[in-house]
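Q: Predict the assembly, please.
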Amino acid sequence: MAGIVGYGAYIPRNRIKVEEIAKVWGADAPSYKKGLMLEEKSVPSPDQDTITMAVEASKNALKRAGLDPKAIGAVYVGSESHPYAVKPSGTVLAEAINATPEVHTADLEFACKAGTEGMFIALSLVQLGAIEYGLAVGADTSQGAPGDPLEYSAAAGAAAFIFGKDKVVAEALQTYSFTTDTPDFWRREYQYYPQHGGRFTGDPAYFKHITGAAEGILAKAGMKPADFNYVIFHQPNGKFPFRVGEMLGFTKKQIEPGWLVSKLGNTYSASSPLGLTATLDISKPGDMILIVSYGSGAGSDAFIFRVTERIDEVKALAPKTRDLLDKNKVYIDYGVYAKYRRKIRKAE
Amino acid sequence: MRDVAVIGIGMTKWGELWEKSLRTIFVETALLAIDDAGVDRLDSMVVGCMSSGLFIGQEHLTSLLSDYLGKNPVPAARVESACSSGGLALRQGFIEVASGISDIVLVGGVEKMTDVTGCEATYALGTAADQEYEGYHGLTFPALYAMMAVAHMHKYGTTREQLAMVAVKNHENGSKNPLAQFPFKISVEAVLQSVLVADPLHILDCSPITDGAAAVILCPADMAKKMKKPVVRITGSGHATDTIALSSRKDMAWLESTHLAGQKALAMAGQKIGDIDLFEVHDCFTIAEIMITEALGLVEQGRGGKAVEEGLTALKGKFPVNPSGGLKAKGHPVGATGVAQAVEVVKQLRGEAGERQVKGAKRGLTQNMGGTGGSSLVHVFEAD
Amino acid sequence: MPNPAKYWREIPQRYRLEAGKCTKCGFIAFPPRLVCPQCGNRKFEKTKLADSGTILTFTIIRVPPHQFEDQAPYAVGIAELDDGVRLTAQIVDCDSGVLKIGMRVRIEFRKIYEEGAAGVIYYGYKFVPE
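A: Predicted assembly structure:
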């Protein structure tokens, strides 16, 4: 059966606290922290972008997969912050991991679910037998408009998954996608920052699609929430995953291992994928994992994985997600943050 | 091989020469040397210039400078070896006369560095390093020499103060040189308090950006004697290359190309280093002078810092180094430096160095270096 | 004027640290060469540099070249990798107290610089503390 053969994460070490951002915009930090269940978020260094993080996450995935990169037949990078508007991130990644030239590559975008989109395609090609192994990465260095609520959560990170049929650490039992045209959050070409519909991003967007995908996959698989050890939802803030989990009948305990957002922020295309890597890091053979992503625009991809015996052989072969999140952090202030994120207007 | 003499020298004031173009600076200087030599013809010209292309968008100096000197159709060559372009020009001129190919040769060096911004000048100078594997990663020349300093300090205990003392000594000498860019004294405190460029090097550890030229006229020693000129001969010439990248050197705290070039020059001259009375060396950065004194064998490897601290290399010391003020105080118009070193040595050996005269100087040595030591040229001079 | 060819040519070295190993004396040339500087042999086999090493020397650049203006101050260093090859690169993610001769580093893929807002983005290797 096809599934995940290797997985890897990458999180930059810079962090900025909610208080730092609130201070500058005259906002009430405690209410943001409470309302969003958010404490701090990751910030990429100026020499990091979606591509550099995708490369490092993929190298970590390769360490766990233990295979010759030339055997990878497809490379997909999902992001809403690809460094080029025209010129793929995927080709740089494919070269960097030595998968070229016999490889199919595509860049994907679908707000925060571009990562799981790549996973869906890579897995499907493997299941079909069209390729032996496929790499899918969700990576983002998301931008939040200065002073906008999204500035507190827009963060940076990458998660990579290699799919294959042998040496599987988590079998892919089921997939399901739920999609509608719902303009809850968007960015027009040539605009620097996105716009969003405020409270419209809640019920008609995030909750409708996640519940749609979750209920859809459970029905298709003939399973119920109690059958799962862990569930990972897309994490735009700390509250939404628990709320949707409650709506669907999942417990806090099932959600917590993959719930990174309070210390990480929303890594957009890497959000639920990093929740998955963190969950795999602590999983045991036989565990059932459900992951449901969400991308504005809108849609959700759901996957059911069953962890295999091989998980214990690979966990320690690359950095653990929680270690990347908690260790080696360095805090920056808003000035440095604005410089790093190019929010300061410079001379031409 | 014929004996080669220097019969004319020329140098004008160095600095930021806003009003003068490269061709003007060169021609003024060359005319001084030609008049000093009292010659009316040239058989050949060799010009050292590192990067007129990047600095002023002008190549083909062979044609331009021979034209503006009024000497067409004289054969002219332009040589480049980064900061040792001048020393290389001197060697090529020496070879032409020694071999009998030419009798009267003008050797000049020139660089016009201030028509571009400081950033662009830094970029142009950076082309002396490995573009793809040093420059690409954001390395600058101060950074490369800073890494050599760190390695030297770690290996031998050379101190920050000893580096500063090199700059202080050279400014002490330069304050006596009316043609120097910075003819004033500085203190160790001033060096250590000046802004950091690349740790541990401060701005006052670094030679400046300068416009300037220098020129000498070479001819067979027999011809010089017949012309009744004071004869200063070039008795030795040595040249060696090393890896382009600092990381490829066997010992990053040692200048092997200077060591080899020095040995070759001294062997040709039939001299030992202890026989030499004064030295004009390539102090592009203070650490460079310390490492050069070791590579030439003036002091034991690792003792270069101690030597300057003990005053061995002061004007009145056992081995006067850089009586002209060196690159630090005199200035460093890149392609001109190697020739200017020869101008100073000849002046000293003629007894014409005024306040900075090394008493009884009979033999002098010039050492000119490119990049982080990727090329070195050493010449030995002797007064008859 | 954009000049992507010069950068593209070195991609195997910049992205994958591909080197050449002399078939006669084992000298590892990075970047690959046509002639072994150690023994003069002209045949090499493809190899890749080691992923980690030890810092031999370093400095902190405070006056940067034009393309690196916004990055200053930044640390650069020469490391001896575990296969004996010496490599020059920036040292990043390194707190000031940690930077010293003898520290262990590993190689990470990072952005080197961009040619303005519209030009090519240049990638390559940097050192991070191990």
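The radius of gyration of chain B is 19 Å. The interface with chain C takes residues 119-120, 122-123, 126, 132-140, 142-143, 146-148, 150-151, 154, 195-201, 243, 245-248, 252 of chain B (CB under 8 Å).
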